[in-house]
Specification:
By secondary structure, the protein is mainly beta. It has one domain: Porin. 13% of the residues lie in helices and 64% in strands. The protein has 2 helices and 9 strands. A hairpin with a 4-residue loop joins strand 1 and strand 2. The longest helix has 18 residues. The chain is elongated and about 55 Å long. The two termini are 33 Å apart.
Length: 197
Amino acid sequence: MKKFFSIVLSASLMILLVGNIAMAKGKSDGEITLVGKMGMDLMGKIGNKDNSREIENSFSVAGEGLYNINSKLAIGAGVEYQPEREMADFVLGHLKYSAIPVYGLVKYTLPVEREFELFFTGKIGCNFSTVKATSSIFDLFGIDSPKENNNGVCFGGGVGFVYDKMFLVELNYSLYNIDEDFCYSKLTLAGGINFSL
């Protein structure tokens, strides 16, 4: 069911973006830009500062809305869907993690070439996550089993390029708090499309 939901969400987002591609244009003061992104989540780790384990690579889909204060600075909000990913230990059992982070963000853009822009982003928000695991997995991390559904803080930062005011590539690092001393971190390589309202 979750795989079906992620496929439908991804397809809907792409249809929306492609359908509005003609609306893309240069940024101006007060303009609103919508961004759709799909990325590969790499080098994921789950655990705490004393003990962390790798978790399988997966993908994520995100949508963001930005208000351009001027040609360089924008503020906005976003939501991301992270489908279930697993950490398996053949002795201790398994752990499955999925999440929907909702966050505020700031974006700073620098023109590099005529058709290229370099940008930096920072985000902070709330992480709505689901964790399913065997109790022995939490013994590995030396913590009590968290609730299956958890809310925590998330934050991150990234850098990327925009080509022709529309197509973007971004690399970002994010940290998601699941429970008091239990976190998930990942590096995401994403591609996406901007369009303006």
